[in-house]
Amino acid sequence: MKVVKIGGSLERSGDLMICLDRVIKQNRQGLVIVPGGGLFAEQVRLAQQRWGFDEVSAHHMAILAMQQMALLFKALQPALQMKGSVAAIRSALAAGRIALWSPAISALDAADIAASWDITSDSLAAWLATELGAQELVLVKSAKVAADADIEALAGRGIVDPALPRFTAQATYKITIINKDSLSC
Question: Which of 50, 95, 164, 179 lies most in the core, judged by the most C-beta atoms within 10 Å?
């Protein structure tokens, strides 16, 4: 099984639909797609700056942003099976479907994932890959990524979130971080 997180920034570049299509065509079986928060998450950041609300509220709103992006992905690819829990994703995969994760706030709260901007959809995708026992986690980014770059360096450059090294420290799955152009998007 492969978990592929498609960065929300691809929406801004106009490459989202092409990349989503490529990911699906290249991975027909055992695929779980994780959406980034994209423009919706950016609005949460701006609203928090303006209104000064707490991190827990911002975290929940950012998860809702991922849910909104999941709805967008589903609108672009209606065959995707939008699922909110690990169990529901497993069921979709067992039925031979491609799962689209629309993360449930309650499930992430129950997993005791901290409410922080250091933890974005990158780390949440890693958490999901661990929970599912995935063989590979792929993060598709709009930024250029060197083939030999390590996660710590990418976190330091802001290409992946600061918590990703911690979320992947004990990973038993392969981790691939690529630029969208690697998908021929």
Answer: 164
Q: What is the pLDDT of residue 76?
A: 93
pLDDT of amino acid 16: 87
Integer Cα distance of 67 and 124 in angstroms: 13
Whole-model pTM over 0.90 = yes
Which residues pair with residue 176 across a beta bridge?
138
- What pLDDT shows up at residue 118? 93
What are the residue ranges in the chain where pLDDT is below 50? none
DSSP string across the chain: -EEEEE-THHHHHT-HHHHHHHHHHH--SSEEEEE--HHHHHHHHHHHHHH---HHHHHHHHHHHHHHHHHHHHHH-TTSEEE-SHHHHHHHHHTTPPEEE---HHHHHHTT---STTS-HHHHHHHHHHHHT-SEEEEEESS---TT--HHHHHHTTSS-TTHHHHHTT--SEEEEEEGGGGT-
Domains and CATH numbers, the chain: 2-183 (3.40.1160.10)
Q: What is the pLDDT of residue 184?
A: 53
